[in-house]
């Protein structure tokens, strides 16, 4: 499924196979006026969007139109809304500091043991892809272990220890938002300063000459502190995604506290999103070869996005269900569950087909047949010619990004679990549709620059991007 927060990244202006391969790696070398305008818009309004959704739930029972109408009609002023918003508290700051510190400790100080006891799981020290400068970084893959330890402690506290109430996250939700923003901006600013003054690898840095673009899209490819603390892997995978399932559990606990029971819709949201989170950690080593690690630099859109955007907007369904508990009819609940599981199946099998095809160099069977592939030749930035193959069988014969189709089905299931009373819980499905459509176009721009006429042959063989017969 789709990975973290991903605002629209400008396309590179580089031309030619070699230059395009270099210019398209992660982010642009030059910034045009439209790209700069997009960057400024996101820097200014993305934090406001998060605040608007959280404020709407806190003050307007999750209505998106009511605060807009109140402001337009003059019933309230922005200062009135802000005055009712809980501020930063010492308790929230302590909770957040302990949380992040604990995840850092699990990340850097506890080597992975899961790969030694879980058949099929790939963990421990793993190599990433080759960076533009030719570096191959090593990573300690222990995210599944961190998730298990964290949730076992949460369960032990809820059942036996009672150190803190299970509703602690919901009870401090808005004060924790300010803590998350502080960390997001702090790590983004540090990453930028580090890129200028003491980069981990100067050859893997990109400078456009534009401060705002450099700040948002990042300068360093893999900023690190010490041997193992990799900013990109840590903030992409921890603490936001580990927290995702804990946040949902806290929302379920609050629903029970307020309404006396946990609805089947809340259970569905918890289960389906937990499947996504566990899939991410089970395949964390595979994640090292995805676009997030292989192409993106580390800047505000990853640093702030993973600290704030992900935990606060990807969990809107659970937050909504605290304020509006929904008990679905059995057929509706079964349909949501089946849709969510279907989306996950499509996503996982599609990715497995591509991974199998790559690992075996096409010497495998997909859907019981020898896979069809389009042979390609491309020239890298160093002038070397390379041969590759593009899979056109299985799910990849139906559409060029059919794994994203599975992702969209799962996203829709989360939202449908909330019924049809409000638009707010459907933000996630709309956002993912925009995100993945843009990513399709961005991926294909890179591939067209890389493969040239061979890419045209591939698109002729597989004419649709996401939905066969539609798009």
What is the alpha-carbon Rg in Å? 23 Å
SS class: mainly alpha
Q: Provide the number of structural domains.
A: 2
Helix-strand string: HHHHHHEEHHHHEEHHHHHHHHEEHHHH
Strand content: 5-15%
Would you write up a description of this structure?
This protein is mostly helical and 471 residues long. It folds into 2 domains: 297 residues, no CATH class; 143 residues, no CATH class. 61% of the residues lie in helices and 7% in strands. It has a two-stranded antiparallel sheet. The chain has a two-stranded antiparallel ribbon with strand order 3-4. Strand 3 and strand 4 form a beta hairpin. It is globular and about 65 Å long. The two termini are 19 Å apart. Pathway: Steroid biosynthesis; cholesterol biosynthesis. It comes from Pipistrellus nathusii. It catalyses: cholesterol + NADP(+) = 7-dehydrocholesterol + NADPH + H(+); 7-dehydrodesmosterol + NADPH + H(+) = desmosterol + NADP(+). This is 7-dehydrocholesterol reductase.
Task: Name the features.
2 domains, 22 helices, mainly alpha, 7% strand, two-stranded antiparallel sheet, 471 residues, endoplasmic reticulum, EC 1.3.1.21, globular, transmembrane
Please describe the topology of this protein:
Layout: H1 17-23, H2 33-60, H3 65-73, H4 78-83, H5 90-109, H6 114-117, E1 124-130, E2 136-141, H7 143-161, H8 168-171, H9 173-197, H10 211-217, E3 224-225, E4 229-230, H11 231-237, H12 240-259, H13 264-282, H14 284-287, H15 291-295, H16 300-313, H17 316-323, H18 330-359, E5 373-379, E6 385-391, H19 395-398, H20 402-416, H21 427-451, H22 453-461
Antiparallel strand pairs: 1-2, 3-4, 5-6
Helix pairs in contact: 1-21, 2-16, 5-9, 9-16, 11-16, 12-13, 12-16, 12-17, 13-17, 13-18, 13-20, 18-20, 20-21, 21-22
Transmembrane segments: 33-54, 144-163, 175-197, 258-278, 328-347, 411-436
Catalytic activity: cholesterol + NADP(+) = 7-dehydrocholesterol + NADPH + H(+); 7-dehydrodesmosterol + NADPH + H(+) = desmosterol + NADP(+)
Family: Belongs to the ERG4/ERG24 family.
């Amino acid at each position: 499924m789709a990975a973290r927060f991903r605002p629209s990244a400008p396309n590179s202006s580089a031309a030619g196979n070699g230059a395009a391969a270099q210019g398209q790696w992660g982010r642009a070398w030059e910034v045009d006026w439209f790209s700069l305008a997009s960057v400024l818009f996101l820097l200014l309004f993305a934090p406001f969007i998060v605040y608007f959704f959280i404020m709407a739930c806190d003050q307007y029972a999750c209505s998106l139109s009511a605060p807009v109408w109140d402001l337009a009609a003059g019933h309230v002023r922005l200062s009135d809304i802000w005055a009712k918003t809980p501020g930063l508290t010492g308790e929230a700051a302590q909770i957040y500091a302990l949380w992040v510190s604990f995840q850092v400790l699990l990340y850097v100080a506890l080597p992975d043991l899961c790969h030694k006891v879980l058949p099929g799981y790939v963990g421990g020290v793993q190599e990433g892809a080759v960076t533009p400068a030719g570096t191959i970084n090593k990573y300690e893959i222990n995210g599944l272990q961190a998730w298990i330890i964290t949730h076992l402690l949460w369960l032990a506290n809820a059942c036996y220890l009672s150190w803190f109430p299970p509703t602690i996250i919901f009870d401090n939700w808005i004060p924790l938002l300010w803590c998350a923003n502080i960390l997001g901006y702090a790590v983004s600013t540090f990453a930028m300063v580090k890129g200028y003054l003491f980069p981990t690898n100067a050859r893997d840095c990109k400078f456009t000459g534009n401060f705002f673009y450099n700040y948002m899209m990042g300068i360093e490819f893999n900023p690190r502190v010490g041997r193992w603390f990799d900013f990109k892997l840590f903030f992409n995978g921890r603490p936001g995604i580990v927290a995702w399932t804990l946040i949902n559990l806290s929302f379920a606990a609050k629903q029970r506290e307020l309404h006396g029971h946990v609805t089947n819709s809340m259970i569905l949201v918890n289960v389906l999103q937990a499947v996504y989170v566990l899939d991410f950690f089970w395949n964390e080593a595979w994640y090292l070869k995805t676009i997030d690690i292989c192409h993106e630099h580390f800047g505000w859109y990853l640093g702030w996005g993973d600290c704030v955007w992900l935990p606060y907007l990807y969990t809107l369904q659970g937050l909504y269900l605290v304020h509006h508990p929904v008990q679905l009819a059995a057929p509706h609940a079964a349909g949501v569950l089946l849709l969510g599981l279907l989306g996950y199946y499509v996503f996982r099998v599609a990715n497995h087909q591509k991974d199998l095809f790559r690992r075996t160099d096409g010497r495998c069977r997909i859907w019981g047949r020898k896979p069809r592939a389009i042979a390609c030749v491309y020239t890298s930035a160093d002038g070397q010619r390379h041969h590759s193959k593009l899979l056109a069988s299985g799910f990849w014969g139906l559409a060029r990004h059919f794994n994203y189709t599975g992702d969209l089905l799962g996203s829709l299931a989360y939202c449908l679990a909330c019924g049809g009373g409000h638009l707010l819980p459907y933000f996630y499905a709309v956002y993912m549709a925009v995100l993945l459509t843009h990513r399709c176009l961005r991926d294909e721009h890179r591939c067209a620059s890389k493969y040239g006429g061979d890419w045209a042959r591939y698109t002729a063989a597989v004419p649709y991007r996401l939905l066969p017969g539609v798009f």
